[in-house]
Amino acid sequence: MRIDESPTEVVASLAAAEFEREAREEVIRVALVDDHPIMRAGLVHTFEREPGFEVVGEGANGAEAIHIAETLLPDIIFLDINMPGDGVHAARAISRTCPAVRIIMLTAHDGEQHVVNALRSGASGYVIKGVSSEELIKTAQSVHEGEAYVSPGLAAKLLGGRTRDNFPTGLAPKFVDLTPREEQILKFVCEGLSNKEIGENVGLTEKTVKHYMTNILQKLHARNRVEAALIARDHLNR
To answer: Do residues 69 and 78 touch, judged by C-beta distance below 8 A?
Structure first.
């Protein structure tokens, strides 16, 4: 700001500064930890060319992942589940010491136990290596917005192929005190739908669906939507 600026110029300067500040705040800071250099380079390329993302750190093992999380505090950290030092162990440590850092597990395995272990270690997302750049970006955006992300196909596999059409009725009275609307939303969650997609299906705003999800997570004592779906699956498989 110059001393000789007119009131109009001052307002314009302040508005521009505010715009730049908001733009910086909207950038999602990501860290990428994978022991395969080519895989890691591909991830870096994906996020560096995508507007709204900034790569703030790279690593190759669990110890480096924990150090990056604790010193750089990225918004999101991608962890290879099978890297030296154990990705699941690193996820547990990061969840404990840096709860604000959201974790996405990156792996070549789509086995049920791998997914369950990863999500219960504190991860908010689970991505199979080889997915498109578009799905990687979608995963990061969803997790950054507070949602858990597992691809719909993998979510269906975790739930034994259950969908709205074969999801048993009467879950809420025997399981937890869910309202009919909360049970309806949980069924959509079990299909891997986002809050926005659920809202479009049931005629609610995304904000209202988030409110229902908060209630559902509290009643199920679940940390995120995928864990809620897993709890529902475990109940149905008894």
So the answer is: no
